[in-house]
Amino acid sequence: MNSKQFLIHLVSTLLSIAFAAKVTIAVESQSISLPGCPDHCGEIKVPYPFGITQDCSFPGRREFYLNCTQSSLFLNSSNIEIINISLDGELSIKRFIGRDCYAKNGERENNRSWLSLKDHDVCSDRNTFMAVGCNTVATISGYRGDREYDTGCISTCDNMDFDNFTSNHQSCSGVGCCQIPIPDGLKSITVSLSSYDKNRTFVYDFNPCSYAFVVEQGKFKFSKTSFRELNHTDVLPMVLNWGIGKESCDEAKKRDNSACKGNTKCANNSLGYLCQCLPGHEGNPYHPDGCQGDAS
Fold first, then answer.
1. How far apart, in Å, are the Cα atoms of 274 and each of 46, 113, 246, 279, 288?
2. Both 118 and 222 in a single domain?
3. Which of 71, 72, 91, 178 is most open to solvent, judged by the fewest CB atoms within 10 Å of its CB?
4. Which one, of 256, 228, 222, lies nearest residue 153 by Cα?
5. Is 209 found in the same domain as 283?
6. Quick check: is 81 in a domain?
7. For residues 38 and 71, is the Cβ–Cβ distance under 8 A?
8. Residues 236, 168: one domain?
9. CA dist 230 to 22, 194, 227, Å?
10. What is the rounded CA–CA span in Å between residue 209 and residue 187?
11. Residue 20 domain flag
């Protein structure tokens, strides 16, 4: 390589580095929220289309207007606490578990767990329905579209089964614990508990309570200590789906009203559609500035 070729190569390399640095800085400096809007509630990031004031959230859509109270983030005016927001269309929340307990005198304490949200459904590939107990019939009901849906599982064990559980026992196949998958598009869920044997004295001494819940996969593992731990547990994490549009991508294109900004593409999901950055681009596809990067 002669000196002229070397000089051309050097200049080309420096220009490439400078351009890459410019793109990186642009992506890193892009705000996830609208100008002048808070982008955090405590430790939780709040990206647009979500916002903690009406002016900072997607207009005309109540589900994107969040409530930040003492560094905790809640879904609008509800008691549903948000622990993570993903621009991939997922919302991680804390949700109450259902429990069914009996005293020696037969008095019953039964608390159902329910989640009634028309704008979100339960993420089928990120959650599992589980029940823990020794005389337990657990059901989950809700709606798929406009049709009612019910399913459930049974968990059984006796004193001998309970004594044979090891501290690291993690099988959830019907003995002490049962689980079933969540179907697509399930909304407005209710978790209920009952007993299959009305004579509950055979389990009272070692297992007076049954529990049922929808939980994010990997966030709960059954073991012998689960019976005791769940007695002191009120909430567990679960994942909801959200969508920016309530129609398909094709319908949004026909109406020319897509919420997707520059350098983005439309992607259908269970609730309608989402926006995604084009390959080679990064950022918030809902932000007025769109996604940044080099798509070449």
1. 17, 29, 10, 15, 15
2. yes
3. 71
4. 222
5. no
6. yes
7. no
8. yes
9. 51, 17, 6
10. 27
11. no
216 shares a domain with 163: yes
Render each residue's pLDDT in the chain as its tens digit; 296 residues.
555 554 545 445 544 444 444 444 344 456 799 999 999 999 999 999 999 999 999 999 999 999 999 999 999 878 999 999 999 999 999 999 999 988 777 677 777 788 888 889 999 999 999 999 988 999 999 999 899 999 999 998 877 666 666 555 567 989 899 999 999 999 999 999 988 877 666 666 667 899 999 999 999 999 888 988 999 999 999 999 999 999 999 998 887 778 998 999 999 999 999 999 999 999 999 999 999 986 45
Are 96 and 233 a contacting pair, CB within 8 Å? no
Same domain assignment for residues 85 and 181: no
For the beta sheet containing 147-156, the strands, ordered from the edge strand earlier in sequence to the opposite edge, are 113-115, 186-194, 135-144, 147-156
Tell whether 210 and 99 lie within a shared domain: yes
Of 175, 159, 166, 177, the C-alpha closest to 224 is 166
- Same domain as 281, residue 248: yes
The pTM score is: 0.84
Q: Please list the alpha-helical segments (H only) found in 104-210.
A: 159-164, 201-204
Q: Which domain holds residue 263?
A: 29-89+243-293
Instruction: Among 226, 241, 256, identify where a domain stops.
Output: 241
Is 235 in the same domain as 248? no
Structural domains in the chain (count): 2
